[in-house]
């Protein structure tokens, strides 16, 4: 049985045209900063460009497993870019034997290991008999709070 860890992988094709206001100063997460009147916004930013600087090579996926918890939760949105280089420690999307996955990538001396964040899952060592294909690097996770 194939265990799917990613669902709804689809091309972004173009960055959405959506400009949002940016608070100034940055929102403090510790001791609150004093409120200084109505002029609290910087110029708007295009959120599409911020989220997907390479829209032609960017895909959107949905996480569907607990294998990457506590970092990534079931239902989180993932941005995957096929043009970004993949290095040790990067998060990747790929396929093994027809099943999509998200894992942390490690390669040394020709050996590829795929690591989960959740310790209850074992490391996957890619073997020659596996139908393995790297799809792209996951560079952003969008979570609801």
Give an overview in words.
The protein contains one helix and ten strands. β6 and β7 (99-108) form a beta hairpin. The protein has two domains: 6-13 and 53-142, Umud Fragment, subunit A, CATH 2.10.109.10; 19-51, no CATH class. The mean pLDDT is 81. An eight-stranded antiparallel sheet has the order 1-4-5-10-6-7-8-9, with no helix packed on it. Strands 2-3 form a two-stranded antiparallel sheet. With 145 residues, the chain is mostly beta strands. The protein has one helix at residues 47-51; strands at residues 6-11, 19-23, 41-46, 58-63, 77-81, 91-96, 99-108, 111-115, 124-125, 132-142. The chain is elongated and about 65 Å long.
Brief account:
The protein is mainly beta and 145 residues long. The chain has one helix and ten strands, in the order βββαβββββββ.
Strand tally, please? 10
> What is the average per-residue confidence, as pLDDT, rounded to a whole number?
81
Order of helices and strands: EEEHEEEEEEE
The assigned structural class equals mainly beta
Report the radius of gyration as a whole number of Å.
19 Å
Instruction: Please mark out the parts with pLDDT under 50 across 5 or more consecutive residues, or reply none.
Output: none
Q: Give the proportion of residues in helices.
A: under 10%
Strand order of the largest sheet: 1-4-5-10-6-7-8-9
CATH architecture of the largest domain: Ribbon
Per the CATH scheme, the topology name of the largest domain is Umud Fragment, subunit A
- State the domain count: 2
Distance between the termini: 33 Å
Q: What fraction of residues sit in β-strands?
A: 35-45%
**Major sheet details:** 8 strands, antiparallel
Shape: elongated
CATH class of the largest domain: Mainly Beta
**Can you tell me the CATH superfamily of the largest domain?**
Umud Fragment, subunit A
Number of helices: 1
């Amino acid at each position: 049985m194939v265990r799917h860890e990613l669902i709804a992988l689809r091309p972004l094709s173009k960055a959405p045209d959506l400009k949002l206001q940016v608070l100034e100063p940055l929102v403090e997460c510790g001791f609150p900063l004093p409120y200084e009147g109505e002029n609290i916004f910087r110029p708007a930013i295009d959120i599409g460009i911020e989220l997907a600087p390479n829209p032609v090579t960017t895909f959107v996926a949905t996480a569907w497993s607990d294998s990457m918890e506590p970092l990534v939760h079931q239902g989180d949105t993932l941005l995957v870019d096929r043009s970004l280089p993949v290095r040790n420690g990067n998060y990747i999307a790929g396929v093994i034997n027809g099943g999509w996955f998200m894992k942390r990538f490690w390669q040394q001396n020709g050996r590829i290991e795929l690591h989960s964040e959740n310790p209850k899952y074992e490391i996957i060592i890619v073997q020659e008999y596996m139908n393995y294909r790297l799809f792209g690097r996951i560079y952003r996770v969008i979570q609801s709070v």
